[in-house]
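Sanity check

After download, print the first record. It should look like this:
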Amino acid sequence: MRSRTPEDLSGRCPSCYLPLHLCLCAEVPRVETRTRVLVIRHNKEANKSTNTARLAALALPRCHILTYGAPGQPFDVSVLEAPDTWVLFPDAKPPPPGTPPPAHLVVLDGNWTQARRMYQRLPELRRLPGISLPPPAPDTRRLRRPPHPEGMSTVEAIAGALSLLEGPEVAQPLYELHERMIDRVLTCRGRLAI
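Expected C-alpha cells:
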C-alpha cells in the first residue's frame, strides 16, 4: 500500500483513507475525553494513508486537526493561547508540581524531523508546559519504522498521554484501533490476511 493516497481518493474511504474493502470507519470507537486534543499536523502528512492523527480525530469528539507548513497558509498561533494548554513533546518543560491536568493538549503530528522543526519554529509551543512519554516496548508493532526507539505513531502518543491524564481505560480503545489499522495496512501490503 502506498503511504500517500491519490488526491481523488480513488477506491479509498474519504475518512480513514484505506481501500474501501478494508475501511475501518465502522470499527472506530467513540472515546469521550475531558481533555481537548489539538493536533498540529505537518502538511506533508495530510495525504498519507498511514497518518494516524486522522484515526484519533475520528475516535475523539474533542480532537481537532490543524495544518502547519502549507505553502501560502500562515499558521494561526492564537490556538496555542487557550488557558490550561500543555504540549506533548519530549523536550517540553514539565508543569509545576500540583498543577491540575490540562484542559487542552497539543500534539505534533509528523515524522521526527518535522515535529522537532515545528516545536523549534513555534516559540509559543516552547512556552507551554508539557508531558513526555516513556518509550514503547521494543516489540511494539509499527506502521512506519521510527528513526529512534522512542518513536511512536500519533494515535499511540495521544493514547499514552490520555492514559497518564485520564486513565488507561480511556486510552485502551485508541491502542486497539491502532492495532486494527496496522492489520489493515499489512493486509494491503500482502503481509497479513484478515
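If your output differs, re-run the checksum step. Summary of this record's structure: The beta strands are 36-42, 63-68, 85-88, 104-109, 130-131.
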